[in-house]
């Protein structure tokens, strides 16, 4: 063997990304457990809370449009900016720190909105100011959560090599589940019984429960974000450029670069975005109306009705939160095995099965009308497709992205997570007009959309470096290798 050839082989070995210790990946991703604790409370508690503040039900889905607006504006732009940030603290961590501070402010504003509303002229019969403050806090929370999510995802994508991307996203999903379990249980417990001092003349039982659980969320977020910031090792942009021969980041406006990237990104990325769009239309039917379905359709409560109807609604919401804790628990156990399932049966097969499961479980509420235990079973079953949705598409995106553009690629993927929420927000207004308070038609529409996403899985292009295990290759014998438009992923398996 020639000296040049030997040097080339040595260089090739040196360039291979080294495996990161699992505990370090866990610490880099633990911040999302804190984020998800608050998100679980938002999912289970905020729709009932704004209904108690006398927001018309037909407008609830419009309030939730803060999520897609934040996802469209904040996460892709923060992803693009963090890709180019030259800070000694790293590229991602400055945004995680600032986003956390804004989240804490939002979590203080929302549960205290009734008290603050009294300062602005609200009475026991009017809640206009409180509702406005709660919605402002709601929007701030979603904007700051999106500021956190993109850099948290990109941080682990930066740290690990192609062979550990699925592992990284699997650990990420485990922390998601931990945050969900604790958050939904916090939403289920009647905290006003244990902390009666949280109540006041303005802040009754439901408000006090929100106040205590949001305080817990603040503490949890501070601890988990601190662990991520101080334990994870992040390369600065200067170090990344040196490793890649001094190549510079693209110049120009972040928004312009975002749209340029969307136009030239590889087909593997474009197709997974399409699958995400239809899958997440189904997911938002569940996330926006899950606990509301239990409170109104199962417990026959009414957030704007008599005292007895309001109590029934609150009881249903609490049991809906308990069912969502079951959903998160199932996800906690399924998430770690997703990488092994994809190796054994293939990425497309597992992804398609996950979306078929989502379609079936979204249709199940049509048959469930009374049983509390059937409700818990249905909500818990959502944990299976959730584990797959939180792992596979993000691994595809991370493996499709050039090394220095992982933040912007993950931000683009998030655009196709939040666009369906726009559609669901508008659909919610239409369904409310035609079907009144009945939420079942929304679930059926989501079920149809999830089924479409399952069919679209089979047009996906899986980055070839995700298929590095012999069992994966046997599961993918029907694939063909095609030239990619990305120099980072020269060959893709179709």
Automatic annotation (TrEMBL):
Keywords: Membrane, Transmembrane, Transmembrane helix, Transport. It is found in: Membrane. This is Sucrose transporter. One of its GO terms (cellular component) is membrane. GO terms for molecular function: sucrose:proton symporter activity. InterPro entries: MFS, MFS_trans_sf. It is a multi-pass membrane protein. Its main location: membrane. The chain crosses the membrane at residues 21-41, 61-82, 94-114, 126-143, 172-191, 211-231, 272-290, 322-342, 349-368, 374-396, 408-432, 438-462. Pfam families: MFS_1, MFS_2.
């Amino acid at each position: 063997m020639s000296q040049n050839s030997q040097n080339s082989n040595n260089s090739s070995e040196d360039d291979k990304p080294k495996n990161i210790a699992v505990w370090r990946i866990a610490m880099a991703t633990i911040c999302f457990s804190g984020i998800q604790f608050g998100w679980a409370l938002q999912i289970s508690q905020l729709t009932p809370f704004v209904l108690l503040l006398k927001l018309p039900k037909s407008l609830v889905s419009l309030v939730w449009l803060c999520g897609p607006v934040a996802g469209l504006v904040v996460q892709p732009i923060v992803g693009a900016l963090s890709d180019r940030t030259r800070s000694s603290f790293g590229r991602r961590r400055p945004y995680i720190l600032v986003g956390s501070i804004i989240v804490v402010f939002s979590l203080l504003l929302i549960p205290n909105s009734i008290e603050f509303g009294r300062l602005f002229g609200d009475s026991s019969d009017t809640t206009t100011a409180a509702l406005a403050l709660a919605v402002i806090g709601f929007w701030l929370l979603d904007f700051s959560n999106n500021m956190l999510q993109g850099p948290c995802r990109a941080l682990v994508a930066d740290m690990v090599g192609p062979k550990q991307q699925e592992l990284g996203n699997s650990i990420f999903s485990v922390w998601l589940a931990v945050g969900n379990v604790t958050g939904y249980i916090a939403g289920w417990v009647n905290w006003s019984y244990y902390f009666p001092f949280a109540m006041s003349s303005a802040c009754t039982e439901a408000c006090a429960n929100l106040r205590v659980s949001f305080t817990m969320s603040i503490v949890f977020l501070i601890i988990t974000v601190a662990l991520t910031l101080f334990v994870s090792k992040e390369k600065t942009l200067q170090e990344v450029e040196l490793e890649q021969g001094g190549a510079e980041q693209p110049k120009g406006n972040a928004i312009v670069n975002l749209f340029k990237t969307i136009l030239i990104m590889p087909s593997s990325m474009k197709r997974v975005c399409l699958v995400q769009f239809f899958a997440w239309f189904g997911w938002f039917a569940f996330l926006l109306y899950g606990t509301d379905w239990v409170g109104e359709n199962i417990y026959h409560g009414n957030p704007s009705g008599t005292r007895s109807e309001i109590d029934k609604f609150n009881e249903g919401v609490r049991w809906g939160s308990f069912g969502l804790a079951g959903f998160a628990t199932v996800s906690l156990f399924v998430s770690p095995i997703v990488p092994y399932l994809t190796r054994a049966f293939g990425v497309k097969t597992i992804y398609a099965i996950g979306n078929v499961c989502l379609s079936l479980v979204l249709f199940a509420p049509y048959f469930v009308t009374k049983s509390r235990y059937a409700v818990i079973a249905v909500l818990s079953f959502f944990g299976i497709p959730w584990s797959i949705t939180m792992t596979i598409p993000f691994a595809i995106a991370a493996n499709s992205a050039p090394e220095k553009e992982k933040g912007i690629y993950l931000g683009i993927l998030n655009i196709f997570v939040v666009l369906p929420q726009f559609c669901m927000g508008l659909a919610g207004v239409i369904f409310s007009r035609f079907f009144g308070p009945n939420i079942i038609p929304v679930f059926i529409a989501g079920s149809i959309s999830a089924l479409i996403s399952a069919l679209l899985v089979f047009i996906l292009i899986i980055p070839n470096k995700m298929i590095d295990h012999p069992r994966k290759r046997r599961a993918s014998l029907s694939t063909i290798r095609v030239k990619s438009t990305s120099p980072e992923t020269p060959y893709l398996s179709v």
